[in-house]
Fold each of these.
Amino acid sequence: MGPTVSIIIPNWNGQELLERNLPQVLAVTKEAGEIIVVDDGSTDDSVNILREKFPMIRVLQKKSHEGFASTVNQGVRAASSDIVVLLNTDVEPEKNFLAPLILNFDSPQVFAVGCMDKSIEMGKTILRGRGLAKWEKGFYVHSRGDIDKTDTAWVSGGSGAFRKSFWEKLGGMDTLFNPFYWEDIDISYRAKHMGYRLMFEPKSVVRHYHEKGKIFMNYSTFFIKRIAYRNQFLFVWKHVGGRHMIAHCLWAPLRLVQAAMSGDIAMVAGYLSATIRVGGVLRYRFQSFRENKVVIA
């Protein structure tokens, strides 16, 4: 089939999801060289279930819960293949999803390839997987793209394939975004600015049960929104520059006032949470400047 593949599944208290979805993963990924589950400090019986029912799967057990980026980075470091496929525990790949995904890596500049994501939301199936993004009024705004094209602005960390050698050159996902959200947009953005290509492969299909995922099952709506806003600010502060920086300085205060007046306290809380992590942003920008790897809009 071409290059060997390592499948990496990050897990946190996903015992039921593992028992339900791993048999399907095993059934449709026989070409893979290995499957690795990285357990992010689960307190349920995930690890025991994996070792008892799925002895063919390699298990990496972390002592404490850190978040998505840290967990995925550990899995990629341990992978023996240059092509790594990331699958969330709430993802069920369909038959023959792997081969067309991997074929895209015949092009040497391809860093990542996203799957066709049949996202199950409120009882409806929404086709996702191709993303659009642009700088607008000092913010990086992303949205779902039509699935009739093969370019994409980012590749989802929940169902996508990545070239490990490029991943390592990029330094992996930024743990600044722990516990979740924006880490895949961030590494995709950095990859594009390094000259790497991102692709969308509609023939590689997965079913994604978002509402049964551990984020929605374990966190409140307010917490999820706060983290999403926080990480949006962190992403902007990492990469904004030039006219977009001027626009951000003008529009961010206005958006915060509008959020407070409309009752969107999660945005205000997210902004305040981001300021606590601004040291990580400054370290990134300084290091990027020093290594002449500046990724600024």
Amino acid sequence: MISAMAKTEEQKYRVIYSEEGFEIRFYPSAILATIYSDAKSYKQLAYPGFRKLAGYIFGDNESETKISMTSPVHMDFNNSGSSMSFVMPSSYNMENLPKPDDSSVILEKTEDLYVAVMQFKGYASDDKITEYSEKLKNLLNDKGIKYYGNFSYLGYDPPFKPFGRRNEIIVTIEWSEENYKN
């Protein structure tokens, strides 16, 4: 029971601008364990991607090290392919992370990013991800905020959590904090 109550480390970010329906965040560089797939949807990517990444953090690595789960799980899917990533705990860097036994699990460091974020509740589905991506796209277009890349999904909760679920749609944006002050 204690382990179920333990706090999961969340990827660090700073909210820099809030608007009704969305917010702008700054994410400092982080290390991700990522798998790439030809899946074209949440449904096709969720289980096999999670299984491979969970294997890595549960000890399927060169030193059989167990790595703590973090949140959120990052998922990006489109017609040209998809990816799923786990954020590595902040106590790790590229030098002290064990090498994955599965060559399809890739360790990579992200750049600092500004992203627009829209939250939604309940269980994620392809329909909800499409719906909220369109809503965020429309809000950004209305505000004249330029975005690029794919709209991605962030999932924060384990599948056995039935209520109070936190899901987010994010997209990388062009942003200058000097131009927007709260």
Amino acid sequence: MRRKHIVVVGSVNLDLVGAAQRIPAPGETVMGRDFQVFHGGKGANQAVAVANLGYPVCMVAKVGDDEFGERLRRGLHDGGVNVSNVTTAKQTSSGVALISIDMAGQNSIIVVPGANGKMLSRDVDNAKPTLCSAGMILTQLETPLETVEYLASVANRYHIPLMLDPAPARQLPSTLLRHVTLLTPNETEACVLCGIDGGKLNSSTAAEYAQELRKRGPATVIIKMGGHGAYLAGKDGRSIFLPAFKVRVVDSTAAGDAFNGGLAVALMQGQDPEKAARFASAVAAISVTRMGAQPSMPTARQVSRFLREAAPSPGGSAG
């Protein structure tokens, strides 16, 4: 039986990554120790994560008509992603992310949307044949919010599960959240969605926020808590804290995207939410041990070996 594909609707960027001893404070200049260029964008990262795990995936996105555009499309194709719905925005630059990484693997990111900002509702309509045959749709907030809202309404109309990664952090309308099947914020995003100052959670506050967010519509909420783990609040009423896997962090860029890609694949393969979240945590844990966004995504065989050999432990990284 042919598997239903996953569709990722979202951003495609070129990541310009500078590594230094520490991330500079405002107005400060620090000397870097390394510079690399990677293919990125939250949408593209999630699509490549899915493809690396051996699952069929299609990307709906826009790139610019500059020198980066064809490079980004080719990178997706070479990564195993169907790019028939990746179109070109005329007289527009491709999306770019400027990323600073410190010695601990933590990062700060400036994203210039470029062509990602030209993703419109009509692009969703043009991709409807692909979307309506999907088993699941993944999206994020690096394209216009109106487009994400329209995509959610389409997913709801055709009864297609929608996973929303609410990044970058912002308040979201209730009409959008009611159409979301799986909501996967990190700590900062969960706090913003709940209107709370802060950004760091423990298992108790994560449980409170996850249940609050579930009341707004999503059947399942998973709060990604980085090196502490993840908190799952499911539609069956089951809530559980999943500790992170202990790994040596090299670069945390795209760990959350690795998690979402892994989660989608595991769910599409029939795993229950708890097992799927553990699988996703393993995908994210492997990703942070490698440099770059898309180059850090593991294969299904690597994840299986990791799960056999590793044990969850507080203080690791789960994306």
